[in-house]
Amino acid sequence: MTEQRARGRGKGGAAASAPARRASDRGRYGRLNRERVLASALALVDQEGLSALSMRRLGTELGVEAMALYRYASSKDALLDGLVEALYLELEERLAADGDEDTDWRAGLHRIARATYAVCLAHPQAVPLLATRLLAVPLARRPAAVLRDHERVLAILRGAGFDEATTADVFRAFTAWLLGYVSVELRPVVDNPDETEPAFRLGLHRLSAKELPTLRETAAALVEQGGLQGLAAGLDALLDGFTNGSASAASG
């Protein structure tokens, strides 16, 4: 009896000292990897929005414990940065699949703008991250795919003959126009999509006719998206400001 109790204590002590078992990373879709985790996170955001994304919810979607995901994203912020990375990786895929050849530097910027616009329209729920996360993450710590995008645009501008200072100016203006245009395109305008009468559909009864007369008059036009045509027209106007000014030497 004494020996049995001793053996029992020995077994219990061995179990207590054994290393904790790792949360399994084999889910309903097989063993996890970073690409699968980010793809599932992006799909969840596409379907339900950023507010639905959490480690626990993503783990449920993948069929694993939430703790298993920390091997691929060390925190919620790291997961959000991973979504930004996924968007820019998709941008690279679209650019690689685009058979158009850039005839000059402006054509190259237009091609990047079109591909970025397409990615954003495919994942509108994730677009806010292009502002919030890039505002929070220093340049050198941004995902590699984001840095490659920066390099791509800067190389086009330097190859066109712009000096460093003008290259930086055009880069900032190009980025601001592109992300700003997409953000405006995706902002909701319709107040009640089930309403058939235009004024009530837009919620114009909520806007003061005395204080906001021009906005009320223009609201119907604001519903329409500018699309690729508006993107291209605005980008050309922006670039004209550089090529017709101090950077005119690089206009060829």
Textual characterization of the structure:
- It holds the Pfam family TetR_C_1.
- Residues 31-91 form the HTH tetR-type domain.
- Keywords: DNA-binding, Transcription, Transcription regulation.
- This is TetR/AcrR family transcriptional regulator C-terminal domain-containing protein.
- It comes from Streptomyces indiaensis.
- By secondary structure, the protein is mainly alpha-helical.
- It has 2 domains: 25-74, Arc Repressor Mutant, subunit A (Orthogonal Bundle); 81-250, Tetracycline Repressor, domain 2.
- 63% of the residues lie in helices and 2% in strands.
- It contains 11 helices and 2 strands.
- The chain has a two-stranded antiparallel ribbon.
- A hairpin with a 2-residue loop joins strand 1 and strand 2.
- Helix 5 (105-122) runs antiparallel to helix 11 (227-243), helix 7 (144-159) crosses helix 8 (164-186) and helix 8 (164-186) runs antiparallel to helix 11.
What is the topological layout?
Layout: H1 2-17, E1 26-27, E2 30-31, H2 34-48, H3 55-62, H4 76-97, H5 105-122, H6 129-136, H7 144-159, H8 164-186, H9 198-202, H10 213-223, H11 227-243
Antiparallel strand pairs: 1-2
Helix pairs in contact: 2-4, 4-5, 4-7, 5-7, 5-8, 5-11, 7-8, 8-11
Pfam families: TetR_C_1, TetR_N
Protein name: TetR/AcrR family transcriptional regulator C-terminal domain-containing protein
Region (Disordered): 1-26
